[in-house]
Amino acid sequence: MRCARAVVDDLRDGLSGPGARRAARRLRRLLNAPGLGLADLSGSLVWSGRAADSEAVSALVDQVLRGETAKDRPPLMAAPVYAGDGIAGALVVVGQVRRSAVREAASWVADAVERGRLEASADRAEQAELRALRAEISPHFVYNALTVISSLMRSDPDQASELMLDFADYTRYSLAQRGDYTTLSDEFHAIETYLALQRAVLGDRLRVQVRVAPEVLGVAVPYLVLQPLVENAVRHGIEPRAGTGLIQVTGEAQGNDCVISVEDDGVGMDPEHARDILAGRGGSDSVGLANVDRRLRHVYGPWYGLVVETAVGAGTRVIVRVPRFQPGVMP
Question: Is the pTM of this model over 0.70?
Fold first, then answer.
């Protein structure tokens, strides 16, 4: 079993990846075979142990890849390796090895390749979700912010300069090509620059309170996990309501966890609609919350994620709970 787990790790990058030769060596020893090779779809072979006739091996691999059937007559055998809905390569074994053992080894290799593909697919999906968050910067907000800054150039150049710096910080952070994780300190700084711009746009209609305990500023969190929550509070909570609105953002330690709350006293929503949003059924205008919720659960497990408390006319509170320390999560 240890050998099987090691083979899975070795083949994380496929049959032609950097661990393929190590996997071939482990499988050869496990089967007690004089020689063993792993071939990808192109027919390229990674070999361990005693070499066999290269022309015979190439012909055998070609037959297996084309016909997708095993050629299991010792002393030279080959079995197809399947991953997903198709063939991914072939396992070649030299020596007097039982056919059932060769088939079992091919099954292990197939499971390893499939697992590697699934992990790669999950990584690509996570990166796609991050790109979607970056692309969510509202053109309406950008236009309004730049219009306000332009209008202040003559009447209050100092404030215009400060807002331009805030705008530069906001766009640089939102669009930056960076790692998967950052610190709460960076996330709160991005929130503050965004809210400074929104206060300039909305004027007295927007009041803001941000309170964060110093001991959680260094906590590592997924990149762009808080900013979409604040943007959602402004766009869907405060902007649609009449009069002045308040947004409160807090962060504090609770035991081994860090709890962040983003609350607005805006228009609120039906709790059933909030559930639809978190399930990804809220429409294109609500992708941010579902996106953040999925990313949190992917990183920390199903017990974490977003909690949304809301009612029509009663505002909305979104609560994020993350571990203060999580193996593998670091900026």
Answer: no
